[in-house]
Amino acid sequence: MAKRRRKKLSKAEAGRIGGRATKKRHGIAHYRAAGRKGFMTTLARHWQGDKPGYLRWLRERGWLAQVHALFDAEPVGPDGLKCLETPLLPGELEEEAEDDDPIGFILRSIRSAPTPEDGGL
């Protein structure tokens, strides 16, 4: 009997299959716990426990990513103009975050991100 040849998977395909299997086996809570542990470890190792400072830095990085996307974007209009709205400047978010749980704020912002075209996990 002839042996079947298996198609060799790329690293991305293998990672996608493994990620889906892990999600099916452990559920979304597994990923949330891993994210929470990673956040706290980064906070302890690199920010000396300064949670507000770390959250401020994360927000500013997100804002700067939007600004960089504006400069990298192709012109859209017939006159060659580009436009990108940035909802808030980095310092404007400070007052809002003080009343809310900062880790919850970051997790909500991650969950509200658009789903990748290929479906992600």
Structure overview:
The structure is a single chain. This protein is mainly alpha-helical and 121 residues long. It folds into two domains: 12-48; 50-112, no CATH class. 60% of the residues lie in helices and 0% in strands. It contains five helices and no strands. The longest helix has 22 residues, at 51-72. The relative contact order is 0.09. The model has no long low-confidence stretch (mean pLDDT 77).
Shape: flat
Give the DSSP E fraction (strand runs of 2 or more residues): under 5%
What is the CA-based Rg, rounded?
A: 20 Å
Series of secondary-structure elements, N-terminal to C-terminal: HHHHH
Poorly predicted runs are none
Number of domains: 2
Q: DSSP helix count?
A: 5
Give the integer mean of the pLDDT values.
Answer: 77
Please state the structural category.
Answer: mainly alpha
Structure at a glance:
This protein has 121 residues and is mostly helical.
Please write out the topology:
Elements: H1 11-26, H2 28-46, H3 51-72, H4 94-99, H5 102-111
Could you list some keywords that capture this structure?
mainly alpha; flat
